[in-house]
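URGENT: need a sanity check before tomorrow's submission.

F., can you look over the RING-type E3 ubiquitin transferase record below? I want to be sure the sequence and structure line up before it goes out.
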Amino acid sequence: MAAELVEAMNMVKSFRVSDLQTLLASMGRSKSGLKQDLVGRALRLVQTEYSPELLKNVRQLYESRFPKTSGWLAARRPEGISVAYSSLSSSPNTTSQGADYLNGISKPIPTPAPEVKLVPLPFYQTLETLLPPTELIAHNNEKLQDSQCIFELTPNQADQIRNASELRAGIRSIQVALRICYTDSIGVQEDQYPPNIAVKVNQSYCHVPGYYPSNKPGVEPRRPCRPINITPWLHLSNATNRVTVTWGNFGKRYSVAVYLVRVFTAADLFSQLKHCSVESAERCRERIQDKLRFDPESEIATTGLRVSLICPLVKMRLGVPCRVLTCAHLQCFDAVFFLQMNEKKPTWTCPVCDKPAPFELLTIDGLLSEILKETSEDIEEIEYLTDGSWRPIRDDKEKERERERSNTPEYPVVNICIPEANGHSPAHSSASVTGKPGSGPSLSTTGAAAVAPAGGTVVDLTLDSSSEEEGGGAGGDSEDTEDSEDSPAPKRGRYNYDKDLVTAY
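Structure tokens as predicted:
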């Protein structure tokens, strides 16, 4: 019992996403989530509800991935395909089977292979199928496998390749493309290379796209999985073309297909986009009004939506504003730069919200195109209003700055060392002590105060106790002087003057 449980858990760990979803659905469990979540859910299912029925389902799924008999392998081959895969083995049985398969199988196959559909690519138009998706079959337990296919080009196909125009030096617009994906009949499959891949065409190795360098620490480089152009190594005649795919057998199943395709450039796709997918300005205004329509259930009323005129891809002003029909935002990106970037590194992801942005869902915003023509280069942002109109944000910013400048009071700079600057003489000015002529009102060393030109009394804060005693002899005795003799001396600050002395105006 324990051994079977461990065996079942090991089988579950080797499952693909489709196998995990099939297992969970058969047991009434949720099949949504990432692969890591599906594996954990399936392992808990095996541990908690282990039963003969569950073990049977696990074994069937495992054996469908890792067949044991050669008869089952033969049954996996689709009927009526004129191309075969055979191991590069010297065994006579293997060679004869491969020859029979190349010449076509006369008797019907009871269990054909599941149909694998490859996702259509915007830069490639399929003209003819030279080899339908066919699984790469491992013939032994070695980690490195060689699978071979043979096909011939018709005279018409060869002429199409010869007469095709050149996109650039050595690259023709009509090509023979080799595509590899996971063997999965659920949905459409994206291109996916097996590990340790190498492709040999007529005894010559062809170029396979390498890895993208990663600038982030700890992130492994990623290989761009795209069709492999095998055209330069083909025989453009009635001669047979032989393709050998070397791949790593690490538990995953792969299928390979060969197509005659027409290759488009970013300029070609942009021309298609301009002619086939432009949203009118009226339709754009209706969308804006729908977004800004008052919702009685909403606590916040939206009166405007701001949109930047700067492309989030290249941080430059938009040339041709483009967005995805399925995205909820009104922000656009530049169509030309978006297509050029996907031509070099196909991701087809919206640069605004990171959601899928397939070419067939792209559209040019007609309203924003008109706004870009009507506005100057220095305007970087606009605001859509509830009635479908718009206004530039730059004018509001300038008005705000002018309003701030008008409301700020302007204070004149006063030089406190000049007595005439503010109509009176500063109390701590050195000119008030000297009493020189032409220096304005001043205090003598024997007086305590003088009358300022403005009529206020200026108290000299530079007098100390010794000056008061000397001044007392000249001015006679007073009650203040007698009281000061009996009372304690007032506290003085760091500048040696009384804190209670102030300038009166």
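My own read: Residues 68-113, 428-454, 466-485 have pLDDT under 50 and may be disordered. The CA atoms of residues 148 and 244 lie 4 Å apart. If you see anything odd, call me.
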